[in-house]
């Protein structure tokens, strides 16, 4: 890429912030969109633009002259996906088309259904059983149509559950809530069931390395293996080690209470839809990523967990 100018949508969030900082460190000029840029103008050396990802003209103005748009914006708390996410993506696609830019899109495992489990290859069919999964499939269909039109290109990098500095509204935050040393660790899964995690700095590093690799297809999609907890105990054990107390109790998430609350609390209802990812091992495999990069960037689990808990104020 000759123009190393990127617009990051969602730069104050976990994945958007991590990618924006990594781009900046790699010599990119980073623009970011915010409804109140005066609140964040001194953060990270980004060029902040006033605007809303739901407003097409705001995105278009901020994207003028860019080579890359990072679409890392989502409604908080899983809510209003059906109403918000597709218009936001359409605004990004229109801005990328106007600049013949590449779109970097953080993908999810939601796109896949039981026919792709338990080991999901990068070319696996996308037949989700959930409403959010169907929306994610439609998002990627629109991205592929954009790439096929030859008006720009798309890079999708799919990873497990995020944790790391800046990742707040995540499953990891349910294990060890921010702001104090936890008296217990609460784990949503069952012992013996594997779960896939992704450390944000590793995800950002992987994305930027791919962006700067020659030979990407116009529509390229990769999976990260991340940190695979094979039996559901490795993450909780790492948290206990970081806390310096192997005797910290590990409790189960009270799903039955959440099920009772779901009809009355929209966020819990949305979370319950994704419970299937804790009931069975679902693991994305990274053969294509390794073939492209040679290896996947991977921080040791204990280092990643300790850094995350420090930033959360838990240790």
UniProtKB/TrEMBL annotation:
Residues in NAD-dependent epimerase/dehydratase domain copies: 6-213
Classification via Gene3D superfamilies: NAD(P)-binding Rossmann-like Domain (3.40.50.720)
InterPro entries: Epimerase_deHydtase, NAD(P)-bd_dom_sf, NAD(P)-dependent_oxidoreduct
GO molecular function: aldehyde dehydrogenase (NAD+) activity
Annotated GO CC locations: cytoplasm
Domain of life from the UniProt record: Bacteria
Listed PANTHER family: NAD(P)-BINDING DOMAIN-CONTAINING PROTEIN-RELATED, PROTEIN YEEZ
Protein name: NAD-dependent epimerase/dehydratase family protein
Organism whose genome encodes this protein: Sphingomonas glacialis
């Amino acid at each position: 890429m000759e123009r190393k100018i990127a617009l990051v949508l969602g730069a104050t969030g976990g994945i958007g912030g991590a990618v924006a900082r990594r781009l900046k460190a790699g010599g990119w000029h980073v623009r970011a969109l915010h409804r109140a840029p005066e609140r964040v103008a001194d953060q990270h050396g980004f060029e902040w633009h006033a605007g809303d990802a739901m407003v097409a003209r705001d995105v278009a103005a901020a994207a003028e002259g860019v080579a890359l748009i990072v679409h890392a914006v989502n409604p908080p708390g899983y809510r209003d996906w059906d109403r918000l996410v597709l218009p936001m993506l359409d605004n990004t696609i229109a801005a990328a088309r106007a600049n013949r830019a590449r779109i970097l899109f953080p993908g999810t495992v939601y796109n896949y259904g039981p026919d792709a489990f338990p080991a999901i290859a990068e070319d696996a069919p996308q037949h989700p059983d959930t409403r959010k999964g169907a929306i994610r499939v439609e998002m990627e269909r629109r991205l592929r149509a954009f790439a096929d039109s030859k008006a720009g290109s798309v890079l999708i990098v799919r990873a497990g559950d995020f944790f790391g500095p800046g990742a707040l509204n995540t499953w990891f935050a349910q294990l060890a809530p921010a702001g104090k040393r936890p008296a217990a660790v609460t784990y949503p899964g069952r012992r013996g069931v594997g779960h896939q995690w992704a450390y944000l700095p590793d995800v950002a590093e992987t994305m930027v390395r791919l962006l700067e690799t020659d030979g990407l297809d116009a529509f390229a999609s990769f999976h990260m293996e991340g940190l695979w907890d094979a039996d559901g105990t490795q993450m909780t054990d790492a948290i206990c080690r970081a806390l310096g107390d192997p005797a910290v109790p590990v409790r189960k998430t009270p799903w039955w209470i959440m099920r009772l609350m779901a009809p009355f609390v929209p966020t819990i209802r949305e979370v319950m839809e994704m419970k299937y990812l804790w009931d069975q091992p679902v693991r994305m495999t990274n053969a294509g990523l390794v073939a492209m990069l040679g290896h996947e960037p991977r921080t040791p689990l204990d280092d990643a967990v300790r850094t995350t808990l420090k930033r959360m104020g838990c240790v």
